[in-house]
Amino acid sequence: MITLIDLDWTLLRGGNKAHADSFAWALRTVYGVEASLKEVDTEGLTDSEILMSILTRHGMAPERTRALIQDATNAMAEYFMKHEDEGIYIPLTGSLECLMWLRGQSIPAGLLTGNVEGIAWRKCERAGIRHLLRFGAFGNEAFRRSDLIPIAKQRAVEQGYSADKVLVIGDSPRDVLCAKENGIQSIGVASGKHSVTELQTAGADITIGTLLDFAHAFQVLSR
Fold first, then answer.
1. N or C, fewer C-beta in 10 Å, the chain?
2. For residue 81, is pLDDT > 90?
3. Strand-pair partners of 167
4. Residue in 180, 181, 185, 183 with CA at minimum distance from that of residue 220
5. How confident is residue 223, by pLDDT bands cut at 50, 70 and 90?
6. In degrees, to the nearest 5, what angle opens at C-alpha 214 toward C-alphas 118 and 157?
7. What CA–CA distance (Å, rounded) separates 210 from 223?
8. What is the pLDDT of residues 39-57, one digit of tens each?
9. CA dist., res. 31 & res. 213, Å (int)
10. pLDDT per residue as tens digits for the range 12-44
11. C-alpha triplet 134, 127, 36: angle, nearest 5°
12. How far apart (Å, rounded) are the C-alpha atoms in residues 175 and 179?
């Protein structure tokens, strides 16, 4: 079994300035578009999907967006590395306890995040949780979050883990939806913008207030 865990507002506090500003940098330098991250609802989207949404609003053809998406996500990562001190890297309540519990149970934890890979791993390093995460799937690898799950499963298998059973953990309805679309279970964590009720309505198999309650929720699902 493997667990796939969202990053922003699930493991770490969101609102990272360096990450947010990296979008404007990539849009300007790669696509020649002056635009703001505030133009679209970014909740639960991959970074690639966010870029696509913004550029569509500015009249760019999807084919051109896709042709340059790797250049754009590379530019985001490069910007972030230069400006990372402008960001915050605060683990949310229960994050460390959850990851330590999984390690103690020999259940591998991987990232399932919309963040660009280089940005995601650097956030984890700065927050002191990188060593507890084994693999991941990232926002530069797919436009839709649902499409990241097969990538994460393949990475787990390549590292010698069984991915026959998968559990998704996240704070948004889109985390829950991507699990449902792949026929796997999810735990919704009301650590971000969405309440327990909203996550239940989205279809989470079980919901918790913080990751401090993760071990109990996992045991309930495993019965």
1. C
2. yes
3. 3, 185
4. 185
5. confident
6. 50
7. 21
8. 999 989 999 999 999 999 9
9. 44
10. 999 999 999 999 999 999 999 999 888 999 989
11. 100
12. 7
Contact 170, 189 (CB under 8 A): yes
Distance CA 79, CA 71 (A): 12
Residue by residue, DSSP assigns the chain as -EEEE--BTTTB----HHHHHHHHHHHHHHH-----GGGS--TT--HHHHHHHHHHHTT--HHHHHHTHHHHHHHHHHHHHHHGGGS---BPTTHHHHHHHHHHTT--EEEE-SS-HHHHHHHHHHHT-GGG--EEE-TTS-SSGGGHHHHHHHHHHHTT---SSEEEEESSHHHHHHHHHTT-EEEEETTSS--HHHHHHHT-SEEESSGGGHHHHHHHHT-
Packing angle of the helix pair 69-83, 117-127 (nearest 10 deg): 20
Q: At residue 29, what is the residue type?
A: T
Q: Could you tell me the two tokens for 155?
A: 């990475």
Asked if residue 189 has pLDDT above 90, the reply is yes
If one counts every other C-beta atom within 10 angstroms of the C-beta of residue 169, the result is 27
Q: How confident is the model at residue 124 (pLDDT cuts 50, 70, 90)?
A: very high
